[in-house]
Write a structure and sequence with these properties.
It contains three helices and no strands. It is extended. This is Anti-sigma factor NepR domain-containing protein. It comes from Sphingomonas hominis.
Length: about 60
C-alpha cells in the first residue's frame, strides 16, 4: 500500500537546501508567470500557528 499524502508545501530553494539531499520527492515549478498572482498573494498571507505550535510554547 502506498503512503498517504499528508502535506503539500510550496518550498523555496533555501527550504530545499535546509532539507538536504535526502529530500528527493519534490516537483519543481517552472519559472513563468502562470502562477505569479497566486504566489504573490500567498507571500502576503500571515502564518497561522498550528495546534502543536501553541502547545509547545506553554
Amino acid at each position: 500500500m502506498a503512503d498517504k499524502i499528508v502535506s503539500i508545501g510550496l518550498l523555496t530553494q533555501r527550504d530545499l537546501d535546509v532539507l538536504g539531499t535526502s529530500f528527493t520527492r519534490h516537483f519543481p515549478v517552472p519559472r513563468d508567470d502562470m502562477f505569479a498572482d497566486l504566489l504573490d498573494r500567498l507571500d502576503r498571507v500571515d502564518a497561522v500557528p498550528t495546534r502543536n505550535d501553541r502547545t509547545q510554547r506553554h
